[in-house]
Specification:
This protein is mostly helical and 183 residues long. It has one domain. Helices cover 72% and strands 0% of the residues. The protein has 5 helices and no strands. The mean pLDDT is 91.
């Protein structure tokens, strides 16, 4: 039990730090994306001369924002889910179901990560049409997203195993941050 707790503690520290950084980069990407869109609105409707690059830049920022914030949402249970059936189960069966779903998610996330890395590698062949950067830098967001989600998934699975072994206090679900700037 001590080895499992040490593993979970280490993984929790890593995930907490990386997700904290990801949240801060994500809100900056959102702010920059908003500024770029407002700039395009000004140029298009006030100056009647649309810029060629803002749509592509905003799309790349949106992909990265989602890639950095989704793993935190997954960790803290912020995704939409239907849990009516699992909540009706006794605690032991609920934990078995949860672990089964987490193990299935590990397989799916591993496949998605592999495919995202392949897609990233092919992105060096093509450049974005207006920003003239390799599309690999945009595609990298998916590899980051699935890699972080896989790390969070492993943490959640290990916590579930710890609770199944009878130590619910030491292997509680991770607490969500109170707000974007929470430490």
């Amino acid at each position: 039990m001590g080895a499992l707790a040490a593993l979970v503690t280490g993984l929790t520290r890593i995930n907490t730090s990386v997700l904290w950084l990801g949240r801060h980069i994500a809100w900056m990407a959102l702010a920059l994306m908003t500024a770029i869109i407002l700039l395009q609105v000004f140029f298009r409707y006030v100056l009647n001369s649309a810029l060629p690059w803002p749509e592509e830049a905003a799309r790349a920022l949106m992909i990265w924002m989602m890639a950095l914030i989704a793993p935190g949402g997954y960790r803290w249970g912020a995704f939409v889910s239907i849990d009516m059936a699992s909540e009706a189960l006794p605690p032991t069966l609920r934990r078995i179901l949860t672990l089964t779903l987490l193990l299935m998610s590990t397989v799916v996330l591993s496949i998605l990560l592999y495919q995202a890395i392949q897609h990233f590698n092919s992105g060096f062949i093509f450049r974005s049409s207006t920003l003239k950067i390799p599309l690999a830098y945009v595609y990298l967001g998916m590899s980051v997203c699935f890699g972080l989600m896989l790390s969070v998934n492993v943490e959640l699975a290990l916590r579930t195993i710890g609770r199944m072994l009878g130590d619910a206090e030491r292997f509680k679900k991770p607490e969500p941050p109170g707000f974007v700037g929470a430490d």
